[in-house]
Write a structure and sequence with these properties.
The protein is an alpha/beta fold. The protein has 18 helices and 36 strands. The strands form nine sheets. Strands 13, 14, 15, 20, 23, 24, 29, 32, 35 and 36 form a ten-stranded mixed β-sheet that branches. The protein has a six-stranded mixed β-sheet with strand order 3-2-1-4-11-12, sandwiched between helices. Helix 1 packs across helix 8, helix 11 packs across helix 12 and helix 12 crosses helix 13. The relative contact order is 0.10.
Amino acid sequence: MTSARLAVDIGGTFTDLALEHGGQRTTIKVLTTPAAPEQGVMQGLQTITAAAGIAPADIALIIHGTTLATNAIIERKGARTALITTEGFRDVLAMGNESRYDQYDLNIVLPEPLVPRYLRLTVPERLDNTGTVLRPLDEAAVAALIPLLRHENVESIAVGLLHGFVNPAHERRVAAILHDALPDIPVSLSSDVSPEMREWERFSTTAANAYVQPLMARYLRRLEADLHGAGAAAPVFLMMSGGGLTTIDIACRFPIRLVESGPAGGAIFSAHIARECGLDSVLSLDMGGTTAKICLIDSCSPQTARTFEVARIGRFRKGSGLPLRIPVIEMVEIGAGGGSIAHLDALGRIAVGPESAGADPGPACYGRGGIKPAVTDANLVLGRYDPARFAGGSIPLDAAAARGALLADVGAPLGLTAEHAALGVLEIVDENMANAARVHAIESGKTYQGRTLIAFGGGGPVHACRLAEKVGISRVLVPSGAGVGSAIGFLRAPVGYEVVRSLYQRFSTFDVAAVNDLLDDMRQEAEAAVAKGSFGAPTVETRTAYMRYVGQGHEIPVPLPVAVLGQDDVGLIRTRYDQAYATFFDRPVPGSDVEIMSYAVVVTTVTGEVTAAPRPDSLFAGEAAPARSQSVLDTATGAVSDWAVYERAALTPGVSIAGPAIVAEDETSTLIGAGWTAVVNGLGYIEMMRLAEQAKP
């Protein structure tokens, strides 16, 4: 038995695998099998273990991330779900908070709830805001719903009762009645899934969990059985949206926490690279086959949030999607990947995405039946890819098919050649990513001055220089294993779990004993979840309170001491709140009381120390020798020239490369644009700088 660890990231186009064993790393990409994602995983398992010279039984740990839950919500392919709620609150999912993401659009389209109105059912019961029973649960009314649930062939049930997050007794009794009558139908309780105030977000999150639970549970259990059948009996951990790992049992129970699991792995990968290279301010670019993910990382930690929207109707429009109240790494995700389809919009302009060719049939150049031009087709036509080298040679590309698709759908209607159509497609997709990055920075109150762009994913290193030019970044870093960066990020993630509970408190009447009891209970729940997968590893705990001035509408996070709180700590916490408030809004509001809405406790295993990369200038400097050259049309200048092509495996630390040039490897290609130079650092990462920046003292 070895200490081999395998990470698997299922994307919309490719399934990425990274295997670390005996101090070595092996990586591969295989096409995703959308109809049965586990088949692609098993194909990848056989390929990567053979390449590494080990058996599946030698794997000690498997870490997995997938977009299956997200895709099921976006494509509305989840389970037939019912919602049981308090009498009088049937339409909370449809009413939301009555906000409009576009105040001036008279024909605004709002997202449809995952549960149709005829399956939103009510029962008589009522709790007040302290959890006191005002009206007992009518158990006969619950039982009376069972024939309807059977008749409608309901596959999953969400239960969200008013103030159930304070006192879950009624919700749990509803679940018990349903389980006795319908033992094969899973039930999601809002008091378990999202025990926080705000009914719309809580009900929406619970409904989404129920909507994807049967699909995800079946998939995860099939995958587990297939892995065991292939001899890989290692425990399977799932990447959560908040950046921690959890067991397969918890993932089956709360699959909604997996909606951003793949992108979260990419953010962790970037944060790890930032620590290795001593980078305090980073823009992470993860461009895959279907989407591009952009994340801000400061002080080697990605931004986090407690709310997330999925299936947005309006592009970049907050409030146009379904709200989920879960721990999540904050990022912007857009339909800009290698498989994103290019077309002409109603005004005859070139547009790219959000629709993707995916893995089946894929871009036209894949030769798998696709006829629509995609970003990969454009990159191939401009000479950025070696047709025989793509995805390690597993997918030979058809340049003629790519050229024909671009000409038919984009070039001919505009009177352009295939090459100039490809140029337009790539400029549009680069600008889409740049625009998303600008919006994300503005919404976060940050800039890109002094930041380093870390690019990975199959398409990230290809588009990094041009994106950096557009947003004003002068330094780009492409780590080794960039083509499967999210999968490698899984291997860097801690086992962790976050528990969030609501307990309304004001500083003027702060109940220290009640808060201590709550935090201790939360700590025990988080520790129990982590203990299932930590294998005795040391853990660390963090506590956070979400506070606001009385009368305000939104809270800000404030760290709490990890200790039993005393009365003297109340003043310390208030001081921390005033300081945190001032960072957001310049100064605190003297004399105003503060209310605490909810608490979060996070327990994670302790991550190991990283080895800092030696500076490139401390290494032997020299010019790299190109392996060949190929003709490339530069998107920045429109000029065609021969670009030197270097094999990444042949580059040693300290060597430098002057752009324009291409560095080729099995899972991606790094484009060094005109006006850029690159050097390989002590860890083998490619650091690119714009020449204008290098001239500065």
